[in-house]
Design goal:
Number of domains: 1
Strand content: under 5%
Number of strands: 4
Strand order of the largest sheet: 1-4
Shape: globular
CATH architecture: Orthogonal Bundle
């Protein structure tokens, strides 16, 4: 136990240290990196990633995975843009319901039909991505001026801190409470550590699994709302790269990809690290293709740092 605790602390130290080093490097190359406007940009860009990372973190704690979060976010952004023209602000409610439904579908298929989460969410990822492209006719949908008042709240800032970031933090706290203070949240961790033992002691594993995917779908739809409100448009592929980044954020925040270990609040560190890399490379004008190489390498590092190299294998259930 002491060894595990020491390793977790070392990983947190390395992640925080990496953030400090990256900030100093980017600031040294370009002093505009730490101007107030760019700090606000970093926090704005981090907000949808943090929300989505919180959702997928809960699924990862099961030892499962949700590959559909990016496509659910894309579909949510497109739906919100279209719904604003038809039903106004009520579109927010419809999109959130859609996200919860998408999560429940994933959870039910994985739990009751015993389809591995990788396969389940790979299929639903394709379904929701195609749905997004179909309803948008594969074109970005700009929000027209008449609906701008519905998203004016996104312009609110407190100093350099935008309201989107504060909402993302509030959402993180909400998910942290579910994980640590509720029976179903604790069951998720126990199940990810040893599902057979969890069943033997009478824990409701099926409920925990469905709840985890439900929370992931909800988070993905909120991420899509953040994208649409921030960009004033519904882009049918906007969430695609965020599947990888959200999983990496959770892993860099200490969530074990083999399940059974992690804490939702620590995803803040992972999301901040990834956003700083992304923003910093833009500020110093690094080619976009190189950025993708860095993100891919980051995921490999995250898997290495968080994989359980003990008795269990890293198997996605």
């Amino acid at each position: 136990m002491n060894k595990i605790f020491a390793m977790e602390n070392l990983q947190k130290f390395l992640s925080v240290g990496s953030i400090i080093v990256l900030v100093l490097v980017f600031f040294g190359i370009n002093r505009n990196f730490l101007v107030p406007k760019n700090i606000t940009n970093i926090l704005n860009d981090m907000s949808p990633l943090l929300v989505m990372a919180c959702g997928v973190a809960v699924v990862l704690m099961l030892g499962s995975v949700d590959l559909s979060i990016g496509s659910v976010a894309s579909c949510s952004a497109v739906m919100l843009t279209l719904l604003f023209d038809r039903i106004g602000p009520a579109g927010y409610i419809v999109v959130v319901i859609y996200g919860m439904f998408a999560g429940l579908v994933n959870g039910a298929l994985h739990t009751y039909f015993k389809i591995p989460s990788f396969i389940t969410t790979l299929c639903t990822m394709s379904i929701w991505q195609s749905t997004s492209l179909i309803i948008s006719k594969a074109q970005p949908l700009p929000m027209l001026p008449p609906v701008w008042p519905y998203i004016d709240w996104t312009k609110i800032t407190f100093g350099v801190v935008p309201i989107l970031f504060l909402l993302a933090i509030a959402f993180t706290i909400f998910y942290a409470v579910i994980q640590t203070r509720t029976k179903v949240g604790k069951t998720v961790l126990v199940s990810g550590s040893n599902e057979k033992a969890a069943r033997l002691i009478g824990l409701n594993i099926n409920q925990a699994k469905i709840t985890a995917f439900f929370l992931s779908g909800l988070a993905a739809s909120l991420g899509g709302i953040f994208f649409a409100a921030k960009l004033k448009s519904g882009i049918p592929t906007v969430g695609a790269p965020y599947t990888l980044m959200a999983i990496a954020s959770a892993a860099l925040g200490g969530v074990a990809l083999s399940g059974g270990r992690g804490a939702v609040p620590m995803t803040i560190i992972g999301a901040m690290l990834i956003t700083i890399i992304q923003n910093g490379m833009n500020v110093i004008a690094v080619d976009g293709y190189w950025q993708q190489i860095v993100f891919g390498a980051l995921v490999l590092i995250a898997i290495f740092m968080n994989s359980d190299r003990g008795a269990r294998n890293l198997v996605v259930k």
